[in-house]
Specification:
alpha+beta; 2 domains; five-stranded antiparallel β-sheet; 11 helices
Length: about 325
């Protein structure tokens, strides 16, 4: 890397550098200091290098902030150092000085600034949500004025498996006395939910709906327009999609797992084969819980209860004790 070239010349406005390119631009010693600085920002102040922007004077600069771009400090890149609050960091002494200055700025009211901004954003979000709901209600009232409300957006999503039933199944399996009735109940409940979700996703991707009363495929003409089924029930595409997600129907990053289960269950005849298929699904729930990936665990798509209740159950099934 040619570090003799100025930062903003090497990376002009139309050439946004990647994080690795940022590191590679720095001399080795400065790079090591920058990584220490970066770790300190994340661990001590919970601010992150995620507000990258271009300025006419300094080229690409890096703001350390939390949500809503509540910035604590900004880092400027030079050919022989990185600059923090007017301090050029190129050795351990200058790094200490920069960190001390960051600490001063942080204690000068950053947490209050962040709390106030977060509160304001939440307040604004509540107002926007209220206005949206009022607007949507007025819109729906107008659209459905002459429609029987008891037959509008009436959804029947296949149920989740109860925690108690699942626990009893595993307890019977552990004793070597397979409860065939429980096995079929759990397995079939998982199957119907995964299969319904699979069918629904496929039709939604095509902009179409399945009537929950008779199974007719419907073709809505718009996001909020009402589509009537010959059986007498009506739906709107918007509420259909919302209901799908609100009821945690199997989807998301584990879609392939759900679809595989829906594919294989009908072919399972032997009790051991059925239990193995169920166990693989529960194993994926355990993996999802232990992965640390943000977002909902796949467990909530399949099992009744709160996230903690389901997590406790999965730990019992995996280890025989509370997690």
């Amino acid at each position: 890397m040619n570090n003799h070239m100025e930062w903003k010349d090497q990376y002009p406005k139309k050439v946004k550098p990647t994080y690795n390119e940022l590191l590679n631009y720095m001399p080795i010693q400065v790079r090591e200091l920058f990584l220490i600085f970066n770790d300190e920002m994340e661990s001590k102040y919970k601010v992150y290098n995620k507000y990258q922007r271009y300025t006419a004077d300094d080229g690409w600069v890096y703001g350390y902030c939390r949500n809503y771009r509540c910035e604590l400090i900004c880092v400027f890149i030079k050919s022989d150092c990185f600059n923090v609050l007017g301090i050029g960091v190129k050795n351990e002494e200058s790094l200490r000085n920069a960190l001390n200055e960051v600490q001063r700025v942080y204690h000068a009211g950053y947490e209050k600034k962040y709390a106030d901004l977060s509160a304001k954003r939440r307040e604004d979000q509540i107002k926007r949500t209220k206005l949206r709901l009022e607007r949507e209600k007025a819109q729906m009232d107008c659209i459905t004025e002459k429609i029987d409300k008891t037959k509008l957006n009436q959804f029947k999503w296949c149920p989740k498996v109860s925690r108690d039933t699942l626990l009893k199944l595993y307890q019977s399996d552990a004793k070597g006395i397979m409860d065939q009735e429980l096995l079929d109940e759990v397995g079939y409940t998982f199957y119907t939910r995964c299969r319904q979700a699979q069918d629904t996703r496929l039709w939604l991707e095509k902009g179409r709906l399945l009537c929950h009363q008779c199974g007719t495929v419907l073709s809505p003409t718009g996001y909020t327009s009402v589509v009537a089924c010959p059986c007498g029930y009506c739906y709107t595409y918007r509420e259909y999609r919302r209901s799908f997600h609100t009821h945690n129907m199997p989807a998301g990053r584990a879609t392939s797992i759900f679809d595989q289960y829906a594919l294989k269950w009908p072919g399972c005849k032997d009790p051991n084969e059925k239990m193995q298929l169920i166990d693989r699904l529960i194993h994926e729930c355990h993996v999802s819980l232990m992965s640390g990936v943000q977002g909902r665990s796949v467990c909530v798509n399949l099992i009744e209860g709160t996230k903690k209740q389901i997590s406790d159950l999965i730990m019992v099934l995996a280890y025989g004790k509370q997690g």
